[in-house]
Amino acid sequence: MLDRLLEDESIAFDGVSATSAGAANAVVMASGLTEGGRSGARAALHEFWRRIARAALFSPLQPSWYDRLMGNYGLETSPAHLFLDLVSRMLSPYDLNPLNLNPLREVLDSVVDFGRLNEACAIRLFLSATNVRTGKVRIFTSREVTADAVLASACLPFLSQAIEIDGEAYWDGGYMGNPAIFPLIYDCASTDVVIVHVNPICRPGVPRTASEIMNRVNEISFNSSLMREMRAIAFVTRLIEEGKLRDARMKAMHIHAIEAEATMQRLGVGSKLNVDWEFLLHLREIGRERAAAWLAGPFADVGRCSTVDIRERYL
Question: What is d(CA 240, CA 234) in angstroms, rounded to the nearest whole number?
């Protein structure tokens, strides 16, 4: 999706709020924009995910040669994923990875100049992480972004040790801000917010297997913070439109969405740990197609009104 939007010169990015893998995308894109403009951002994103795929090439969690041949990239849950799920319920990351090794850190450091971002980031960055002790969301801004901040935003507690920053421990930001919208309202000039949906909001039917149930629980949990913020945005927007709120600090927001709900619904639990290069390219093309469709339609109303029905979609 970012790859396609970066092609369109009529779009300017005021700020990006992101969580988890989205936080990595946001930081890499910001680094590329700062160093080499739009083409630099696209190249940086490509290089980042290429390195991620290489780092995981021999992981048992990646598709087998047969899956690659048949194009099965995450439609089913593999025995390796089931084994990991079972082990993670019995042993913590502190037992399984006592040295706290994380290959993502090396890839981030090789692609992103964090010092440059802190000094002169081309866009405003807001990365969400969850404070383990307080349960509150922590927003890391452009001046605060480090590799640790990205790792904190993407720290799944059953798979990785908590990331410690300034004496506090952090887990994945998805629990409290997935992504956080309020920094874009308070700290950016634009009144338009485009939400990119990765986790499906709706799923047909009722999950039956243990892995399907846990996957759906995680999706609902990670979408809950967004739902709460959308309720608040809808409430304030209605007050402004009805003339009941005249606080100059408040502004009516226009909400837009880019999603591939039908595609995401078909992907199995195992797809979330799949960084096979062919699968990543497949997802990139889906993102480009959905972004192109948004540009050809709803984009015309940017700056004028919301292009999603907030009440129907989120409330």
Answer: 10
